[in-house]
Amino acid sequence: MSDQIQFIVEKLNQEPFRKNYNLITFDSLESVQLLQLLSDVLGEIDPKHAVDIREELPEQTAKRMLGLLGILKYKPPGSISDLSAFRQGLVTGSKPVIHPVLHWLLQRTNELKKRAYLARFLVKLEVPAEFLQDDTVADVNKQYEELMEAFKNLHKECEQLKTSGLSTAEIRRDISAMEEEKDQLVKRVERLKKRVETVQNHQRMLEIARQLRLEKEREESLTQQKQEQKNQLFRAEQRLQRAQLQLKEMHHAVVDSKPESLMKKLEEEINFNSYLVTEKMPRELESKKNSAFYLQKVVAEPAMSQSDLNVLEIKISEVNAEINQLVEKRMMKYEPIESKFSMYRQQASIISRKKEAKAEELQAAKEEMSSSERQMLQKTDQAHKLEDSEVPKGDEFKQYVNKLQSKNTLYKKKRLEIAEITAEYGILQRTEELLKQRHEALQQQLQAIEDKKGISGYSYTQEELERVSAVKSEIDEMKGRTLDNMSEMVKNLNAMVAEKKSNLAPVIKELRQLRQKCQELTQECDEKKIQYDSCAAGLESNRSALEQEVKGLLEERAQEESNYHYINCMKRNLEIQLQRAKEEVKAYISPDPQERRKAIREQYTRMILEQENLGKKLREKQKVVRESHGPNMKQMKMWQDFEQLMECKRECFLRQQNQTAIGQVIQEGGKDRLVL
User: Fold this and answer.
1) Is the pLDDT of residue 459 over 80?
2) Residue 12 near residue 21 (C-beta atoms within 8 A)
3) Which of 10, 26, 73, 606 maximizes the CB count within 10 A of its CB?
4) CATH number of the domain where residue 13 is located
5) Do 585 and 605 have their domain in common?
6) Which positions are tagged coiled coil (predicted)?
7) Cα–Cα distance between 225 and 231 in angstroms, integer?
8) How far apart are the C-alpha atoms of 252 and 261, rounded to whole Å?
9) Residue 497 domain flag
């Protein structure tokens, strides 16, 4: 306790509290002063709690402090029964209650500041369910939850950026490097401009380059539009396939259908859908809501340490043991009375589980049937493509050989025709090239005329419209042929389904007998299972009790082993320290100077003397530098002036040489003229 109080006093005397306490003055504080001190510490963690407790009631003070301590996950020492004593001590300002709270808060102030900051935005407000029935309140609550999720994501990104290691020095280096690159680019642009200015018609060339860039951007946009139209065409084909599948299902439902069968089928679908809506879906929705509520509750709570998780696991195991004991007591107490009803309850639960399983199987079967129908459509398309590819046998093979011979003679004739056609193709290709050149010349003339008239691009748009209309007509014809083929396929499939029904009739009769036998065996199995469950419950309770006992003994053994190893390690450390202390004392009191030099004290003494001598030399050197600083600076200034003077003389000399050279050139030119 004294170490705890000393730690509290040290922290309170530091920033930002500066209380100037000692152990005596802190221990002599009254209950009101202790509560005010606790309120000041909480106000440092969360500024909302920086209040004067004399301006509020004691109940409000206790409620405010308990609320913040609960958010900060403070756990008072002791069992759950001591919570009332803790609340009472907090209201009265008891020292045994306030001192541990102050010690816990001052140990982890920065961590608790972060937790309090996050709690302001992540502690969810619980809205009653009856208020959520209002649409406005529900929308506001939804926006509130979305903003909370957005805050979580932003806080995570902020923490990642803080821990990413980006420093201001690196950012400054990057900025300076980018500025250098910018200067280089500016210089390159200026050099290029100077080069371009010397070229003839550079303005026209720049305009042509700009138009080329615009045309490339237009080409990219057109390719993007083309891709989008392809995607739309693909989606339209998918919708067509779904519509064809629905049409097939409707044809299949209409063929060989009677009002009684349709009514029966509708009743079955209504019963199945009503079961899904009234029983299955609400249960699943309720379970999802509960799981989502628990997950939100877990997310809203701050992070838990390993010790908190261990405590929760111990509590869970204790509660499970209590539940097992209560179940055993209940079975022993009410088993003779409710033995008649237990069988019916178990049968009802079994039937409900079977009902749920069959509903899931039915739903899976429907999905499987729809997928198999889609596969059947694909297979029928493939079959139509491959219906002529059959393997010939016997006489058919001879006929096939004769056909091949006739086709061989025909092939030779066609080959000669192909040779003539290729020769003609060369001529036509040359003609096509000439026509293309003439067409390009005409297109250029037409483009020039359109530019003069102000209707550029008119001919290109007209050609595109004609091409699109032709493609649309071809697609419409193809759709008509596809619908005719699908109707014939539906008729064939209906005939095959009727044939399969007649073949399956005797199998269904055998299946009914087997179902009756299965029901009898299922009833016998349920009875045996009831006996097994009752026996297994008793064995499970005994096993859980033994497991708890074994677990407690294992934990006790592990604790004792850890204590043993800790004591051994401490003993070894103390022995090593004692041995080092003995060697140091022996070396220090030894008459041998070599041994005395090995002592740590002598070594540190020598090092101190060396550093003092070094410091003295450095101070002398500093004094010399200070004394010679002024004359040296004056001498450096004189040398700089001398350098400027010599540079000026050099420039004057160079100018004089240039002028004399120019005068000589002029005199020589005059002499040449006189000679001529």
Assistant:
1) no
2) yes
3) 26
4) 1.10.418.70
5) no
6) 137-253, 483-563
7) 10
8) 13
9) yes
Q: What is the mean pLDDT of the chain?
A: 78
pLDDT average, residue stretch 510-524? 80
For residues 10 and 116, state if they share a domain.
yes
Instruction: Verify that 615 and 523 share a domain, yes or no.
Output: no
**In the block, residue with structure tokens 């030894």:** 590
User: Residue 293 domain-assigned?
Assistant: no
Total domains, the chain:
3
The answer on 513 and 537 residing in a single domain is: yes
**Ordered DSSP codes for 255-303:** TT--HHHHHHHHHHHHHHHHHIIIIIHHHHHHHHHHHHHHHHHHHHSPP
Tell me what the mean pLDDT of segment 150-161 comes to: 80
Cα–Cα dist 284/274, whole Å: 15
* pLDDT tens column, 212-269: 888 988 899 898 999 889 888 888 888 888 888 778 777 776 665 667 777 777 787 7
Determine the pLDDT at residue 387: 47
Q: Is 93 exposed, middle or buried (0-12, 13-18, 19+ CB in 10 A)?
A: buried
- SS3 state of residue 1: coil
Tell me how far CA of residue 557 lies from CA of 123, 481, 543, 552, in angstroms: 41, 84, 21, 9
With CA atoms as reference, report the closest residue to 527 among 399, 339, 308, 371.
339
- CA torsion sign for 508, 512, 517, 523 is positive
Phi-psi region of 255 (alpha: psi -120 to 50; beta: other; left: phi over 0): beta
Neighbours of 219 (CB within 10 A): 10
| Upstream peptide bond of 16 is cis (omega within 30 degrees of 0) | yes
User: Could you tell me if 514 and 605 lie in one domain?
Assistant: no
What pLDDT was estimated at residue 342?
A: 59
Same-domain check for residues 506 and 605: no
pLDDT higher than 80, residue 639: yes
- Going from the C-alpha of 489 to that of each of 330, 370, 374, 492, the distances in angstroms are 66, 17, 14, 5
Q: Cα separation of 574 and 568, whole Å?
A: 10
Residue 22 domain flag:
yes
Measured CA to CA, the distance from residue 632 to residue 635 in angstroms comes to 5
Domain assignment present for 115: yes
With a cut of 50, say whether residue 462 has pLDDT above it.
Answer: yes
State which residues form the domain around 25.
Answer: 1-123
Q: What is the pLDDT of residue 93?
A: 78
In angstroms, the first-to-last Cα distance of the chain is 122
Do 508 and 617 lie in one domain? The reply is no
Q: What is the mean pLDDT of residues 132-151?
A: 82
Give the predicted TM-score (pTM) of the model: 0.29
